[in-house]
Amino acid sequence: MTDKDKDKFLAMVSARAEVELRLSDFDPRTMMVTRQHIIEKAKFPAVDFHNHLDGMDPGDLLPIMDRCGIEHLINITMRTGDEGISMIDKFQGHPSNRFSAIGWMDWSDLPVPGFFDRAVERLERMVDCGAIGLKIWKDLGISLRDDHGALLCIDDERLCPLFAKAGEIGVPVMFHIADPDAFFLPIDRFNERYEELAAHPEWSFHDSIFSKDDLLAQRDNVFARHPETTFVAAHIAEKPENLAYVGDLLDRNPNLMIDIGARVAELGRQPFTARDFFIRYADRILFGTDLVPEEEMYQLHFRFLETSDEYFDYPSHASRQGRWKIYGIDLPDDVLSKVYRENAMRFIIR
Ligand SMILES: [Zn+2]
Questions:
Q1: Among 55, 107, 139, 188, whose CB has the most other CB atoms within 10 angstroms?
Q2: What's this model's pTM, rounded to 2 decimal places?
Q3: How far apart, in Å, are the Cα atoms of 221 and each of 5, 163, 217?
Q4: What average pLDDT does range 186-214 have in this prediction?
């Protein structure tokens, strides 16, 4: 290379490096050459314990389920009242016997006196109609207000009869009462979910009255207060960022199960810790996705659970989460069969 060529080359390189690139345009392609296993079917018949299928026809889902090895799907209906009952019937009552339904907590008349008694009656009605559980969502603790206008705490004692009734009739109560830790922090350059929150600022709980720690503490009080009731803490008990916390919670509460819905991205970035966690708590973990049932989505879950593939993209439907990739955790067969199927079967009525 002549001196003139060299000068030209350096000028070109520095001009390029000065171009400013917007973070949202940065889309690096990995140069890693790694093994890629496509797992088309779960190694054991699987139960997807966490999904929302109200708008779908169960019959249309069967071919996807067959191809992916999904034996059973659970629809957590998001409708309430008579509409909720008809959703329970649509899935639980489907002749294939491959669907179950979990009912959604109806808070619509919370400010009307007598609500807490009605909540118990509604649970009984949903279970009579076939529901195998009750889902409580994050509006509790964040926005729901009682007849005096006060924010209703998750561990408000007026809810005790409801949780006790669930234990009495033998259905689990599923809680989803918080979101990732980053959603409770300011949307700034330090936030690891910045891109997602910048696109959806309404997902931020930074301004909520209770901190995430407060919300989890209230929820954990409920688990401890009702040892006769089984609870399912969805999304790795909302704390996949800290599996030591979740392990401690499971140790303290034998009545608690967790699901892995929509949290593969978190688990897969800590493969050594996650693998140990799955092995230790193999009896307490439910497979669930919380994502639209599609082959690619299921295959990515199977790849995460069953292989030791490295540095691959996680299932993300809505938007990019953090800027990281995941690793498989290569679970042993006995753990896989419990997580995929056996743990869920104790809740399913056929
Ligand atoms: Zn969900």
A1: 107
A2: 0.93
A3: 72, 12, 6
A4: 93
